[in-house]
Amino acid sequence: MQGLRFAEGGTCTVERAWVVAPGARYGELYAGVDPAALFWSQDGGLTWSELEPLAAHRTRAQWNPGFGGLMVHSIAPHPTDTARLHVGISAAGTFETRDDGASWELHNAGVLADFATEPYPEAGQCVHHLERDPHDADVLHQQNHCGVYRSDDAGASWIDISEGLPARFGLPIIVHPREAGMVYVVPESAAEHHTTPEGRFAVWRSRDRGAQWERCDRGLPADGAYLHVYRQATAADTCAEPALYVGTSTG
Predict the structure, then answer these.
(1) 48-95, pLDDT tens digit by residue?
(2) Interval 17-23 mean pLDDT
(3) Side by side, which strands form the sheet with 170-175?
(4) Are residues 127 and 180 in the same domain?
(5) Domain that holds residue 218
(6) Does 90 share its domain with 20?
(7) Cα separation, 100 vs 156, whole angstroms
(8) Among 94, 73, 176, which Cα is nearest to 134's?
(9) 147 within domain boundaries
(10) How far apart are CA 10 and CA 14, in angstroms?
């Protein structure tokens, strides 16, 4: 991975890579790292270059490492406009570029940061996982430290869709690849207790873009199941009838 060099190599401050995701163009890859930076490859990962304007954003001083660090963990390329890309940074917020990373716009309007002095700051929100809706490229969903949110305008503003869930905190989020409006989350008790509420493990589903939520727990452990699910431990395949996958930290 030439160009993506880690701290122990003595040439840059990258501590770890969090996620590698394909872009919209052939051979294009993005790598999100800690501390928060984004690298870009146009040759299938043979060489990498940093998209430096993101790490040098004017709000950088307001970014704060969370429990897991300060990292780019979610990458959401636009499916048709190849110069556009959204990323989620914990704890900084959601950012968008429309010019292949030459400039970045911060998108945190309406997202709560109840751990901060100002509950709705410009920057510093703790995005846990960000996903683009495959049915509408302007619709984004995020599981945040402080709730579940949806944007209908490519991140310019966010709507809190947490009502009806047993907890606002959680890490992963899945947007169904075929059923429009269907979203899944895995709520956890609180930031201080990364476990299933009341020890009854469940995935929660909305069929209407977060207006209502229903508990899905058939076949899941319901007694003493104080489990934890990491931000990248859920997925959906793209088969004709997609399956969902959830992995816990305890196997």
Answers:
(1) 999 999 999 999 999 988 777 899 999 999 999 999 999 999 989 999
(2) 95
(3) 170-175, 183-187, 203-206, 214-216
(4) no
(5) 161-251
(6) yes
(7) 18
(8) 176
(9) no
(10) 10
Q: Which of 202, 178, 175 is nearest to 188 (CA)?
A: 202
Under the banding of pLDDT at 50, 70 and 90, the label for residue 118 is: very high
| Alpha-helical regions (H) of 19-87 | 52-55
Name the token pair of 225. 């199941």
Classify the C-alpha dihedral 222-163-130-192 as positive or negative. negative
| Nearest CA among 97, 93, 94, 95 for reference residue 82 | 97
Q: How many domains does the chain have?
A: 2
pLDDT of residue 163: 98
Stated pTM of the model? 0.93
Residue 27 sits in the same domain as residue 120: yes
Dist. CA 76–CA 71, nearest whole Å: 15
Least-confidence region, from 13-17, 90-94, 108-112, 243-247: 13-17
SS3 track for 138-205 = CCEEEEECCEEEEECCCCCCCEECCCCCCCCCEEEEEECCCCCCCEEEEECCECCECCCHHHCCCEEE
Q: What residues pair up with 236 in beta bridges, in sequence order? A: 244
d(CA 245, CA 251): 13
3-state secondary structure of 51: coil
